[in-house]
Amino acid sequence: MNTYVQYMQGNGDESPLYLFDSRFAEKMGLEIDDGMRGRVDSAADSQVDYTPPIAFSPDLFTVLGKERPSHRWLIMGPPRSGSSFHTDPNGTSAWNAVLKGRKYWIMSPDPPPGVYVNEDESEVTSPSSIAEWLMNFHEEARQKPGVCEGICEEGEVLHVPGGWYHLVLNIPSQDTDNSEYNIAVTQNFVPEPRLPTVLKFLRDKPDQISGFRFSDDNQMERAADTENIGRFSAYELFVKRLQECYPTLVTKALSILDTTPTAQPSARKGLWEQVTEGKKDHGGNFSFGFELNDDSNDDERGDRWINDS
């Protein structure tokens, strides 16, 4: 961490490294109420370090307990760092709370100009850095219906609707220089209106599921081949837990799915090769997902370095 702090204070990169830590709560010994009760009782409130905003409760993924996929991150980076356009994993929604610094956001319900999505939506690719996208496509994107943009100040919380494409750029405060760093906490969640969509994602796109790390005592009829271990069981596990906790809600959601044909997983064709075919110059792409059953230790597994270039 000391090395990264030194890097933040002295770097002049166009797209600086961006630090994601999915295990910050465990490392810091934080007690977090994930909203299983929907709201925190006054007696319990004093015993937790933070609680997700009540506007985003209940979070239906809490029924998975220890089998829940990676869902919360402490994010740190200097000005100019950020993430290029992406949607959040597993069909989830998200909230992002700025603890220090400022963040510029631009969001779109559809792929914005300069952003390319392959047929099965497994890859979101932008053949440019954040700075290049802003210079070449920003003005065009702002004219598109439904596009939203704004700046989140310190202490503010932003909701990212599930399935929306969003770009985030850390920017310095108006009264400070570029040596300031940005810190935020973000969490993915499944709100009630989003449940049918998340179930459909888990059912129809098993090759795109990320973040699940099944415990040794819950094998859940894992698939035979190593590549798909646990992926095909995520849908069944979620439905099973929902039936135990929210039987009426999941019955309604499943009735919607029953009227929707099951999509056949398609071969994941690399979009980057299509976009850059015949070109010598290409920029960076961003993928927000997590590999399954990572064998690395907790410290390595929890930290992710994101560089947009």
What's the end-to-end separation, in Å? 22 Å
Strand-residue fraction?
Answer: 15-25%
Helix content estimate: 10-25%
Number of helices: 9
Biggest sheet strand order reads 9-4-11-2-1-12
Radius of gyration: 20 Å
Q: Return residue spans where pLDDT drops below 50 for at least 5 consecutive residues.
A: 37-43, 216-231, 265-276, 279-309
What would you call the shape? globular
Please state the structural category.
Answer: alpha+beta
Q: Mean pLDDT, rounded to whole units?
A: 77
How many strands, which pairing sense, and closed or not: the largest β-sheet?
6 strands, antiparallel
Report the strand count.
Answer: 12
The ordered string of helix (H) and strand (E) elements is: HEHHEEEEEEHEEEEHHHHHE
Short description, anyone?
The protein is α+β, with helices and mostly antiparallel strands and 309 residues long. The protein is built from nine helices and twelve strands. β6 (116-117) and β7 form a beta hairpin.
